[in-house]
Structures are given as structure tokens and as C-alpha cells.
């Protein structure tokens, strides 16, 4: 009986959904450390984007459902919601690469990956929001200038965790209320049927890897380790 | 044993020799679907006999069968080729036993048959989708190397994925 080459195993696993991968993590140590690694997460995200797979739409904020965007058939009620869901009115600030940024009336904010059902408090992020930008091309940080508040142009902001090379896993786009004063109206929903209520749907694009950058055990290096920087991304 | 091409004789024929000495006569247009052979043809030019010491005749034959089918489908009518190829691909991988699948995957990889590697890798992935951890371990002959309790902890953390 032949064995699979390790590269083949990696290729195979990168094609699986987050749910399958969460189970595969408990197959053996080698698989677990592969699946949790930033390189694999990046590979998985790229594969999802290239092949348009594992895409879904999250519908309704207070009682969210997941719809597979390929088939629009299976509607799954999302459970194991982040603690921010507690009868409070939830707003989705934005989404990117499978992560949603949620906030409630108290101003609590979390980053949530509906594919893996993992979340992390993002309260500390807000304090840093207007300072730095993360440039995806150069994978470097630079200062960010916010668009004029009078300007109606929609601004999308991507966040990255400062000081970590793989910050892309922790990125999402946001329209901060202090910039536009309103929630995101339309987030990259393509191929949805007419009449679909866009105002309460948020496309969860290419799935972020299992850990989605929420591995709280890993603190980024440097004194500014836990702070989030952002980038303005032009939209439409 | 040699497979002969019965179609047009105007195209150039290549002779491929597998590790066990089995030879295949294949149209150049078919064989060059494989990146490795395409490179050899381009580099060596006039060479008509290509030795492939890393591929066994059985699996080389199967890889070439796949190439031929795809080459034929693509020369027929333009419309519906993708559908035909997809249907044929499904048939091709349906009854592969795991040992053959692995060897074929290695052969396709060695020959740089990107599309075929993709097809076979998808087949392996389908052996994991929706399966229980124990089933995955059995399929891939993997023994759990977690400490007692460790695995339980991983499961508990993401229990929804195990339902």
C-alpha cells in the first residue's frame, strides 16, 4: 500500500471545508499542526478564492443563518455564537476574507469567523483605528488618512494585526461609524437572486483557515503586539 | 504490449517507455498534455523514444488513457466538451481502489499532468468530506498520537463540527 506524499496531503486538506478541517485537526498531531499553521491558512484562503468554494452568506444579525452561496439550498442556523450575541442588537460593521466585525449598542466589538464559529474581542482594536495602515502589496504598515466625512464615497477599511507577518488572516473590512455614520449596505454579494434583502446579508467570502487568526495563544511580537492597524481600500 | 494509435497518421507519434519496459505509442498532441513530456519534446526535439524510469507501465497506461480521452473530447464539437470531460472524469475515478489512486496520483504528479493531479486530489479529498475522525484514520492508515485527554479537548472546543 502506497502512502500519500506529504505535499499531496497538504493539497488534499486545503480543499476541505472549515467544518471538515476542524475534525481533521483531531486525526493526528501532524495534521493538527499543519491545519493550524499560517501557511496552510493562507493556502486554504487562496484556494477558496480561486475556486470560489466554501462561500456562504450570513443572513440576519440577531439570529444569524448561514447559506451556502453555491447552492442557496442548505440554510444552517448558526450556533455557538460569540458572546456579543446576548439579546443585544448586533450590527455588522463589515466583512472580509470570511471574517465579520460585529458590534452592539454598548460598543463591544468582536471579530467573528462564522465558518469556524470562532471569535475574538476586538475592543482594543478600536482605539488604534485611525493611526496606521497595512499595505497588502508590500505587507508593510503606513499611516492612514481617513476620507473627508462630508464625502459620500464608501470607504472600506482592512485591519491587520500589527507586527505579524501573516496579518492578512486577521483582516476584514469595516465602515467605521465615525467615518460614514451608517452601516455597510452592500458587501460584495454577487450572484444573489433579485429581491434578496441585501441590507441584512453579509457575504462571507473566501473562508479563512480554521484558526482564522484567532489563536489567542499566539501573541504577536513587539510592544505594540496586540494592536490593530488598518488600510483604506477603495471600493467601487 | 503496446497500444497503437488508430487515428490519423499525419500527426507525429512518440514512443513512451515505462520503468518495466512496457512501451506505448502515443500521438504527440496527446502525450504533450503532460507537462513533463511536453518539456522533453521541446528540449530534445527529434527524440521519438522517451524513457520514463519512474512510472510503471500499468499507471502510465492509465494516465495516457486519460490524456487520450481528453484530447479526443476536445477535438470533437466545441460545445459540451466540458460536460463530456466531467462525466468521463467521474467514471474514471469512480472505481479506483485506494492503492491505484495513490500510484496514479504519483505518476500524474511526476508527469506534470496538472489537470489529472487535480482530479485525483479531489477524489482523495472526497474520501474525507463528511467522514468521522475514526473513518478518516482508517482510510489513511493513521494512528492517533495524541495524549489521553488531548483529543477529547480538541473535540470539545469545536463540538459542533463533530455532530
From TrEMBL, chain A:
It comes from the Eukaryota. PROSITE patterns: FBOX (PS50181). Residues 226-236 have a biased composition (Basic and acidic residues). Residues 1-45 form the F-box domain. Residues 216-236 are annotated as: Disordered. SUPFAM superfamilies: F-box domain (SSF81383). This is F-box domain containing protein. It comes from Trema orientale (Charcoal tree).
UniProtKB/TrEMBL annotation, chain B:
One of its GO terms (molecular function) is kinase activity. Keywords: Kinase, Transferase, Ubl conjugation pathway. Residues 115-161 form the SKP1 component dimerisation domain. SMART domains: Skp1 (SM00512). It comes from the Eukaryota. The keyword Transferase applies. Belongs to the SKP1 family. Part of a SCF (SKP1-cullin-F-box) protein ligase complex. This is SKP1-like protein.
